[in-house]
Amino acid sequence: MAKPEFEFTPASSVEFTPCNPPIEGLSEAVLARDDSNDSVTRILKFEPGTDTSPNGVLAHDFWEEVFIFEGSFTDLRLNKTFKAGDWATRPPGMKHGPWLSESGAKMFEVRYYQNSGN
Q1: Residue 78 falls within a domain, yes or no?
Q2: Which InterPro entries does UniProt cross-reference here (predicted)?
């Protein structure tokens, strides 16, 4: 099934749940998911003090587009801080993280797979 159809809906109506794998202080509000291919649209929330170091550096097999709309976090591998208004597009295999958010942050994220040849 494709992602569900929604007209404008308050983001506050979607509950934040722990991420998988769980990291203390990191949660997600899944706005839409396509269970047939695991494409996801979500809000990722970092509570103040969240450190994703236990997950190490990430790389995955899907595209990821992210936009920080609140707060900031530091990429510990790059030793660089990103803040509200910053965005990234990550193709499959791109390394990123881990992060530390001293004051907390929220990020809008879209994950999707692209068929080869498209």
Answers
A1: yes
A2: ChrR-like_cupin_dom (IPR025979), RmlC-like_jellyroll (IPR014710), RmlC_Cupin_sf (IPR011051)
